[in-house]
Design brief:
The complex is a heterodimer of chains A (393) and B (246).
Chain A lengths: L4 H4 L2 H19 L10 H26 L7 H30 L7 H13 L17 H25 L4 H20 L11 E2 L11 H28 L1 H11 L1 H6 L4 H27 L1 E2 L6 H14 L5 H18 L6 E2 L4 E2 L1 H19 L6 H16 L1
Helix pairs in contact in A: 2-8, 3-8, 3-11, 3-12, 3-13, 4-5, 4-6, 4-11, 6-11, 8-11, 12-13, 13-14
Chain B lengths: L2 E12 L2 E12 L3 E5 L6 H8 L7 E6 L4 E2 L5 H7 L1 E4 L11 H8 L6 H6 L4 H14 L14 H14 L4 E5 L7 H14 L4 E5 L3 H7 L2 E6 L2 E6 L1 H5 L2 H8 L2
Helix pairs in contact in B: 3-6, 5-6, 6-7
Classes of the chains: A mainly alpha (393), B alpha/beta (246).
Pfam family, one (chain B): ABC_tran
Protein name (chain B): Urea ABC transporter ATP-binding protein UrtD
GO molecular function (chain B): ATP binding
Chain lengths: 393, 246
């Protein structure tokens, strides 16, 4: 009767196998490592999609299992991206500036280099001083640490305040929306220290790496696949045991869990903060593939999309979140990328770039009304049918 | 027998309505007590106060040998002190198996980290089996709690309370909606449970209370109206007035 979490969550093995085969096939077809059927830009799209699947897994943990409908997890995703972006931009600028200054007759002093980097990075917002938050930007190690620390601490403080006051349900969702909106508005300001609406750019170039984008994109693709595999396994392990029982208990009947002696607030805070950190790691892998991050990435609608993906994929089953995020974001790329053929109706032409959102909205409504378990619910139907089949034969 | 729980001079009002009015109540270790009273007598509010769900306006609630006040603790802390509560409606986690429900209730460290790292040992599974047997759910361990019948859910909840190993069990209308056989089983469970701990049963049904064969406290308008054996209180003229109307 002692079961390992894999025995309890057989989907983990299936998922890891599927992910591994997908990764191998893509690698063989890639430009960088394989025969070149898949273009580098599409490799980046696939890599980014894997990161979105990872944040969807985090969303499923916090919403599908613990019942906390956070509409702010993209804020953590974006912060993770900003944290890694700061190092990428600083280091790359430093290399370029140093090289340029070396052309001069006298070798540059340290402060000359710093000033020059400052005016390169912040000239666009009319400044050349390094803001305080860039203190650690010269250290990859520290900045990597900040990828989880900054969103983690924000989630911890926000969650502590919200859960301690027993804010639940739709009120909590609104609070999380307010948080992500406030953060986006702050970052839009030029004096926020993160280049306002310009954001951080050139993130696709790894400082000091000569390899072409076709190779770098594969590194990030493989890293994203690995992160998704690890994140999925971690999530499955967490929910397979008593912790998962308590989370689902909180989702279904918070009061009862409290009377069992569990500190509901502590558990909510733990899962909220943990998923914020997972989201941040996903973001730190996403934005170097996207090449640019700006505050528009973390406007409230982004986090709402995240909830839509998880709902369409099916809540509370982990693989549903992956299916939803992968499926919807890839289709979305296709529709909004202008590749989908327009439909001329004579008097009006349906342009998918505009109408895609309507389609997405309709499918969300459709799923909510007719298939509340989402795409993942189809697996239940298949299982049931097979069971019935075995029963009758 | 020493006093386990002492409620003294407790009052609480909601929007001017006095739900509990200067109520005093005591229960000793391993005592079985039935609390009866007409609708609105404050039975459920009394439980809410003891379990920390409602804060009284005045009065004291003192617990255990160390005489700690329960008024400063939240629900989870009070539950960890050893007070278990069964709600009127069966509240089990319907989306999870009977076994998972039991495992969650077992008396273990409730801290976030120890829950995360917890994996049930052989002894834990044996304890769950024993509890399931006691409440008559051994055959249902791997079914979803939501698939159980109404009576079975009530027993599961009682079993979960026993798993918490509380020193005081508060049970709100356990027999509501049960068949006669189910009632019999339930009253046996409660009498059995009261051998090792204090049990307070709130119940409407006199027949059920008679079967418990214990001291009875009658509540009326938020205060104790009478206390004693069932025959004693039912012959009390005040009680007859309250129940039959003046």
């Amino acid at each position: 009767m002692r079961t390992s979490f894999i025995a309890k969550y057989p989907s983990v093995l299936v998922f890891l196998l599927a992910l591994a085969s997908f990764t191998i096939i893509v690698t063989i077809l890639s430009e960088g490592f394989g025969i070149g059927v898949i273009s580098t830009s599409f490799i980046k799209t696939l890599g980014k999609t894997l990161c979105l699947c990872l944040i969807a897994v985090a969303m499923d943990l916090v919403w599908g299992f613990a019942g906390i409908l956070s509409l702010g997890h993209f804020a953590f995703f974006g912060l993770g991206g900003y944290m890694i972006g700061m190092w990428l931009m600083y280091e790359r600028t430093r290399l370029i500036v140093t090289e340029a200054l070396m052309q001069g007759q006298i070798p540059p002093t340290g402060s000359e280099v710093i000033d020059s980097i400052g005016s390169q990075i912040f000239g666009v917002v009319g400044s050349n001083e390094f803001p305080l938050i860039w203190t650690f930007a010269d250290s990859l190690g520290l900045q990597l640490l900040l990828v989880v620390l900054v969103p983690g601490i924000l989630a911890l403080v926000f969650g502590w305040l919200a859960f301690r006051s027993r804010v639940t349900g739709v009120y909590l969702s609104i609070l999380t929306q307010a948080m992500t909106l406030a953060l986006a508005l702050y970052l839009f300001q030029n004096d926020s220290g993160l280049r306002g609406n310009n954001g951080l750019s050139g993130l696709q170039n790894l400082p000091g790496v000569e390899a072409p984008q076709s190779i770098v994109s594969m590194w990030f693709f493989l890293a994203s696949a690995m992160a998704l595999g690890l994140g999925y396994s971690l999530a499955a392990w967490i929910v397979s045991g008593k912790f998962g029982s308590v989370l689902r208990g909180i989702r279904d009947n918070e009061t009862r869990v409290r009377f069992l002696g569990y500190s509901v607030e502590g558990f909510k805070l733990a899962i909220f903060t943990l998923t914020a950190c997972i989201a941040a790691i996903a973001g730190a892998l996403y934005y170097p593939q996207a090449g640019i991050i700006n505050p528009a990435e973390i406007v409230p609608i982004a986090s709402i999309y995240l909830a839509v993906w998880v709902a369409i994929g099916g809540r509370g089953r982990l693989y549903g979140a992956v299916i939803g995020a992968g499926f919807v974001s890839l289709i979305s790329t296709w529709f909004t990328g202008g590749k989908a053929p327009d439909i001329p109706l004579g008097f009006y032409t349906i342009k998918w770039v505009d109408w895609w959102l309507v389609l997405l909205g309709l499918s969300f409504v459709g799923v909510t009304l007719f298939a509340p378990k989402g795409i993942g619910g189809l697996f239940d139907l298949m299982k049931k049918r097979r069971a019935r089949h075995e029963h009758t034969s | 027998m020493s006093t386990l729980l002492e409620v003294s001079g407790v009052s609480v009002s909601f929007d001017g309505f006095k739900a509990i009015n200067n109520l005093s109540f005591q229960i000793a270790d391993s005592e079985l007590r039935a609390v009866i009273g007409p609708n609105g007598a404050g039975k459920t509010t009394f439980m809410d106060i003891v379990t920390g769900k409602t804060r009284p306006d005045e009065g004291r609630v003192i617990w255990g040998e160390r005489s700690v006040s329960l008024l400063r603790m939240n629900e989870a802390q009070i539950a960890r002190e050893g007070i278990g509560r069964k709600f009127q409606k069966p509240t089990v986690f319907e989306d999870q198996t009977v076994r998972e429900n039991f495992l969650m209730a077992l008396k273990k460290d409730r801290g976030v980290l120890s829950v995360l790292l917890f994996r049930p040992s052989k002894a834990d599974h044996e304890q769950v089996d024993a509890l399931a047997e006691e409440v008559g759910l051994l055959a249902e361990l791997d079914r979803l709690a939501g698939e159980l019948s109404h009576g079975q859910k009530q027993w599961l909840e009682i079993g979960m309370l026993l798993a918490q190993e509380p020193r005081l069990l508060l049970v709100d209308e356990p027999a509501a909606g049960m068949t006669p056989e189910e009632r019999e089983h339930t009253s046996e469970l409660l009498v059995q449970a009261a051998k090792t701990r204090a049990v307070v049963v709130v119940e409407h049904d006199m027949e059920f209370v008679r079967r418990l064969g214990c001291k009875v406290t009658v509540l009326h308008e938020g205060a104790v109206l009478a206390e004693g054996s069932l025959d004693h209180v039912t012959s009390n003229s005040d009680v007859i007035d309250v129940y039959l109307g003046r």
